[in-house]
C-alpha cells in the first residue's frame, strides 16, 4: 500500500536519512571504537551508550527507508489549480460563526504537525475538506459540537 506524502515531506525524510548515514553512523562507529579501547566491555558505560545509540539510529534508518519506499510523493504545484481541496493543498478556512480564519496544509501522517499548520489528511477536519471547493461550507464534528467552516482559498504551494 502506498501512502501519500508531499514533495517537501519526502525531501525532509531524505535529508534526515542522508544525515543519519553520513554523519551519525560514522560518529557512532568512532565512539564504539574508542570505547572498546577503554577495555572491559561489561562495565564500559560509553560502549553500551554508543551501542544503544547505534541501535536507535539503525532503527530510524530502516523506518525512513520503509516510509520512503511506500510513499506516493505528490507535488501539488504540478497539479492544475481548480479551487478544489486535494492532498497537499494549503487551505484557508474561516469559522462561519466567529469569522476566525486558519490556514492548513493537508499532508500525510508522517508530516502532520498542527503547531505549524500541517494537518493530517486523515483528521476529521481534513476529511471534511477533501473534494470541496472554494466558497463551500463544511460541517466538522469537534469535541465541542459541530463547527461550520467556509473554504476561503485553496492554494497549490
UniProtKB/TrEMBL annotation:
Q: Which domain of life is it from?
A: Bacteria
Which controlled-vocabulary keywords does the entry list? DNA-binding, Elongation factor, Protein biosynthesis, Transcription, Transcription regulation
**Where are the annotated coiled coils located?**
none
Enumerate the PROSITE patterns for this protein.
GREAB_1
Annotated ranges, domain Transcription elongation factor GreA/GreB C-terminal? 82-155
Q: Matching Pfam families, A to Z?
A: GreA_GreB, GreA_GreB_N
Q: Name one GO biological process term.
A: regulation of DNA-templated transcription elongation
Domain Transcription elongation factor GreA/GreB N-terminal, chain residue ranges per copy: 4-73
Instruction: Provide the transmembrane region boundaries.
Output: none
Molecular function via GO: DNA binding; RNA polymerase binding; translation elongation factor activity
The family this protein is said to belong to: Belongs to the GreA/GreB family.
Matching entries from PANTHER family are given as: TRANSCRIPTION ELONGATION FACTOR GREA (PTHR30437)
State the protein's purpose.
Necessary for efficient RNA polymerase transcription elongation past template-encoded arresting sites. The arresting sites in DNA have the property of trapping a certain fraction of elongating RNA polymerases that pass through, resulting in locked ternary complexes. Cleavage of the nascent transcript by cleavage factors such as GreA or GreB allows the resumption of elongation from the new 3'terminus. GreA releases sequences of 2 to 3 nucleotides.
Q: What is this protein called?
A: Transcription elongation factor GreA
List the gene name.
Answer: greA
Amino acid at each position: 500500500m502506498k501512502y501519500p506524502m508531499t514533495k517537501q515531506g519526502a525531501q525532509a525524510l531524505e535529508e534526515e536519512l542522508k544525515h543519519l548515514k553520513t554523519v551519525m553512523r560514522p560518529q557512532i562507529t568512532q565512539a564504539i571504537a574508542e570505547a572498546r579501547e577503554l577495555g572491559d566491555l561489561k562495565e564500559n558505560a560509553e560502549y553500551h551508550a554508543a551501542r544503544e545509540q547505534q541501535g536507535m539510529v539503525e532503527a530510524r534508518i530502516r523506518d525512513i527507508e520503509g516510509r520512503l519506499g511506500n510513499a506516493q510523493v505528490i507535488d501539488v504545484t504540478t497539479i492544475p489549480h481548480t479551487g478544489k481541496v486535494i492532498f497537499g493543498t494549503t487551505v484557508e478556512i474561516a469559522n462561519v460563526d466567529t469569522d476566525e480564519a486558519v490556514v492548513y496544509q493537508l499532508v500525510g501522517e508522517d508530516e502532520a504537525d498542527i503547531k505549524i499548520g500541517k494537518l493530517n489528511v486523515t483528521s476529521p477536519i481534513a476529511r471534511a475538506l477533501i473534494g470541496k471547493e472554494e466558497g463551500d461550507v463544511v460541517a466538522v464534528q469537534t469535541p465541542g459540537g459541530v463547527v461550520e467552516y467556509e473554504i476561503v482559498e485553496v492554494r497549490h504551494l
